[in-house]
Amino acid sequence: MKLLEERIEQDGRVIGTELLKVDNFLNHQVDPALMEAMGQEFARLFKDEKIDRVLTVESSGIAPAVFTALALNVPMVFARKKQSLTLTDDNYVADVYSFTKQETNHIIVDKRFIQAGERILLIDDFLANGQAVQGMLEIAKAAQAEVVGAGIVIEKTFQKGRALLNEQGLRVESLARIKAFENGKVIFAEA
Ligand code: 5GP
């Protein structure tokens, strides 16, 4: 998505060889017009999938996910992150190792907010090693819901996430694909 690539070039900050900071339009300050355009693009990409619900993980997935859900006219639910919790039967739970924070969190979704037989679209801000999406897949599976695909704002193709998800037959659509960071610059993968 050209608008997003331009914004990454303009405002993204490369940290080392693996991390991109986009905290002035996605991860801290949020650009609503850009989020709306991204939500419309995800809705267009998945328009034939008869989606019942959009699922993401707090907090950075929420902005793109809510605009996707708005464009699809369906509810959005975000998994909550918990370091430790007293497990109850009311929640679905999965473990997610965070690449950026180097810690494992539980992600939890209240059983009331994802139903058996529903068709679910996953949304997240970044795809790195695929752990966040994998955790959402586990929750959907536990709920006996069907995941139609994952919409990713920024994919880093040099990390393992896509391979992990494709192995499981999951459709992955990314709005920007980065193949490397070189000398502090972003190199995009060919479309
Ligand atoms: P994964 O679970 O695919 O390994 O990593 C995805 C999660 O880690 C995303 O939800 C995002 O919060 C975080 N993440 C991974 N790579 C980056 C990055 O380069 N920049 C930022 N800001 N977050 C990232």
UniProtKB/TrEMBL annotation:
One of its GO terms (cellular component) is cytoplasm. PANTHER family: HYPOXANTHINE/GUANINE PHOSPHORIBOSYLTRANSFERASE, XANTHINE PHOSPHORIBOSYLTRANSFERASE. It is found in: Cytoplasm. The gene is xpt. This is Xanthine phosphoribosyltransferase. Homodimer. Belongs to the purine/pyrimidine phosphoribosyltransferase family. Xpt subfamily. HAMAP family: XPRTase. Its main location: cytoplasm.
